[in-house]
Amino acid sequence: MSTGSPLRAKRIELGLSQQELADRSGLSVRAVRNLEKNGIATARAASVRRIARALGVQPDALCEPARAAVRVRVLGPLDVSDADGPIPLGAPMQRCLFALLAAQPGIPVSREEIVETLWRGHPPPTWQNVVHTYVGRLRKTVRGGQDHQCIATVGAAYVLTADGLGLDVLDFDRHVATGARLASEGDLVAAADEYATALALWRGPVFADLPESLRTGPVSAAVGARRVRAALAYADIALVIGDHDRAASALRPLVDCEPFHEGLHSRLMLAHAGAGDQGAALALFAGIRARLVDELGVDPGVELQRAHYDVLHQQVRSPRLPPLTVAPRQLPPSTPWFTGRSAELSELDAAVTTASAAGGAVVLSAVAGAGGMGKTSLALQWAHDNIDRFPDGQLFVDLRGFDPSGQPVPPAVAVRGFLAALGVEAKNVPASPEAQEALYRSTIADKRVLLVLDNAADSAQVVPLLPGTASCTVLVTSRNRLADVVTRHCARIVHLDVLSEPEARRLLTRRLGTARTAAEPDAVIRLLASCAGLPLALGIVAARAEMRQDMSLAALADELRDTGDRLRGLDAGEPASDLSAVLSWSCAALAPEHLEVFEVLGSVAMPEIGAHAAAALTGRSPASAASALLALERVSLVEQPEPGRFRMHDLVRLYAASRTGEHHRAVRRLIDFYVHTAYAGDRLLDPTRQPIEIGTPPPSCRPQPLDDRAAATAWFDTEHTCLLAAQRAAVELGDHVATWQLAWACDTFHQKRGELHDQLALWNRGLAAARALDDPVVLAVAHRRLGLSHLALAAYAEGLDHLRRSLAFTERNADIAQQAHSHQALAWAYEQLLEFTPALTHAVEALRLYRAVGNNIWIGKALNATGWYHAELGNHHEAELHCAMALELQRREGFRAGEGNALDSLGYIAHLLGDHRTAADHYRRAIEVFREIGHAYSEAGSLDKLGRTLAEAGDTAEARIVWNQALRLYRVQQRSAEEDRLRARLSELTP
């Protein structure tokens, strides 16, 4: 990257001098000056990121692509050149060695691999000296930016570094990754351009002008395979958007290099046919068929035969695009004040390269005895500085291994979070943790992904999260030494200690400025001594000093000296530090009302908190609570990871909790806040749901106002993890009523969002609370909801057992409405098992009971369900009668979703009777209703059924249009099974 005027303009815009920018970024003034003047051809990516973080912008805002000092091309004949022209690489063997390294930038190449490639495994006696000489000459001949040596020694291997070099193989990978991302986002035209740019970098086979040992070796094969995969992906996209000529141009050179590759040939045939050249397509098929038969003795495969059929019948279809997801980018931002740790960062670099050379899964653990040592900051700094190594994404999870709540994140929860980030739909996640782990490892296999497992409790929490392939890198932080991960999984331990005195001084200087620290050197010494090199303490001290610009550093140091040590020995495994003194000193400077908020925040372990929840916890108004939280943030006692959301470091929380006694009333207020706000939100999400009795909020509880369904959804999205924590707090407090009520209030949101495992966990605790209350009504609800949760995860035996228990409780209570709900749930359960006779029995009983209750919307739902099961059993007259009554009733009540469902059922019944015109009319009206109310899930199903009706009626053109509409919805909704089925039907349609 080159920098210059954009950097200078941004610095001037912010009113910073070059010295101030240097202090902020940790670079020298000379380095900043050189960057602004473009005095170097290439800026290191890490330096640019540091500058960008210091200015609060993205690196792209400051950097423009620039031609590298040296250009290295291996995608074809080997070519190395600079501004003056080609760079001679010396003897042929020396050229081969450089090519071997250049094709694998950043990857250590062992001497054994070099020997095998250069001498076919039979080197001369002096081979070590020869290789050493070659490397020395190449280091002098090819030099990157700032005279950087481009070949480094890593143990018994050599690695080509990319600094200052422009490598076509890296450019190729970058364009392919961008193309895949754009395709996953639906921008197929831009994606095609990226793939085309990547493929245009190829000038022939890899190492085209080098000896056979390189041209046919494993490195050449691996790089060539990436070209083929990119060409296939590009062709699929180009054919979808109708760009047949470009697809053909990209594929032609490859079919010559891959004469037996049926995937390439089938796509080129389709491209030729789509461009109107059917003769070329048929000639291509004849050629590969002859080669397959004559040279391999096999016939063309299914894919090639299908392409041939399509060309012959002039029925060229676009091949199915594989389901693509956006690569996850979960890394939190790195700290802008990160300082020092160069040795540890280098150790992490070495661990990655060494493990890559060994071919094993990389596990790195940055560990230290004390919390607040900066383990997370180190991990994130390394991760951001090396983000280019992981084009398939970065996953991050805070495992909360040492959270004051004592509630570390279970591995299964972390696995489900990773699966969601990797694009796996919740309904496709299996129920058992073992199956979830297997799916996770299969999903991440062969991807170049970085996993940051932060704050792990022990090895047992880490091992289930380790991928099974060597393409991934895992970075773990923990206060535990993780002995099992070290011994069984070959982890490389990076021990993290306190900052050295120069590093701590540099951090304080960057925060406070050179002028201020230079003016009071003695005070700086005393402040550093109080912090004992602990980054957390240094951050708190710096924040306090930044707030008191009018106060001398000496006065601040005097205040800190007079503060007692209240946190020493907090944990027997923690080394002594003066963090307690720093914290108590900071608290002494707080206004009384802010100190009270600080102390009560430590009384409950919440992952984060917003102003309304903080108001409930502290008994203040939201405005007053927000003001107090901002005051605590200013002195670094809390962080604000996103606007309006605040988080407290676990050691700071422990200190806050240690200052005063229990805060049961405060926790009680917080639980009440979540119960009543969640209940109100659920009523907005599903007003037809039978409410529960939760009473009016107590005078101390002020629920957060939610205006409409959108506001309720947004609130649940934001507060989801806090709601889970609130239920755990209710369990710890022994509040059984709030425990099950929170499970109930989150139910609709969990169903809509597909958070099936969280729903199951909440209702497991909810059922335990119901048993403790020994309330048969609550037990009936809890068993029913838990049963439905099990069924949603395909745990049918457990689900049916809970539903039967629920029905038994409702019959014992003589609660007609609850009995009806349980029968309706059992009907749905048997439908999932395709057992429609018992499903109908329960639906009929639910209908009878709903009629006794007199709720017309419930009656309408039951009528429709009864009609559906009659239809599945072939009782078409009864089915039509019930669904028609359901339609009339739902229209009368104005329940639009029920109206759409009834119309869909009537369409299905008419279809079964062979009345395609009536069926299509019903489906079209159902689709109109679903579109009006924004129910895209049901709309997709009705479109699918309408397409089937039209196809059977012979209207294949209209069926194709309708099915393509359904297909788009299925793809957006990630309903892969429905998508696969519908694509198969589309392929069977005649023109």
Blueprint (SSEs and pairs):
Blueprint: H1 5-13, H2 18-25, H3 29-36, H4 45-55, E1 70-73, E2 79-82, E3 85-86, H5 92-102, E4 109-110, H6 111-119, H7 127-141, E5 151-154, E6 157-160, E7 165-167, H8 168-184, H9 188-200, H10 212-215, H11 218-240, H12 244-257, H13 262-274, H14 278-296, H15 302-312, H16 342-358, E8 362-367, H17 375-385, E9 394-398, H18 411-421, H19 433-444, E10 450-456, H20 459-462, E11 473-478, H21 483-489, E12 492-495, H22 501-512, H23 514-519, H24 521-531, H25 535-547, H26 553-561, H27 579-588, H28 592-601, E13 609-610, H29 611-618, H30 622-634, E14 639-642, E15 645-647, H31 650-659, H32 664-685, H33 709-733, H34 736-745, H35 747-753, H36 756-773, H37 776-792, H38 796-813, H39 816-832, H40 836-853, H41 856-872, H42 876-893, H43 896-912, H44 916-933, H45 936-952, H46 956-972, H47 976-988
Parallel strand pairs: 1-7, 8-11, 8-12, 9-10, 10-11
Antiparallel strand pairs: 1-2, 2-3, 4-6, 5-6, 13-15, 14-15
Helix pairs in contact: 2-3, 2-4, 5-7, 8-9, 8-11, 9-11, 11-12, 11-13, 12-13, 13-14, 13-15, 14-15, 18-19, 22-25, 24-26, 25-27, 28-30, 28-31, 29-30, 29-32, 32-33, 32-34, 33-34, 34-36, 36-37, 37-38, 37-39, 38-39, 39-40, 40-41, 41-42, 41-43, 42-43, 43-44, 43-45, 44-45, 45-46, 46-47
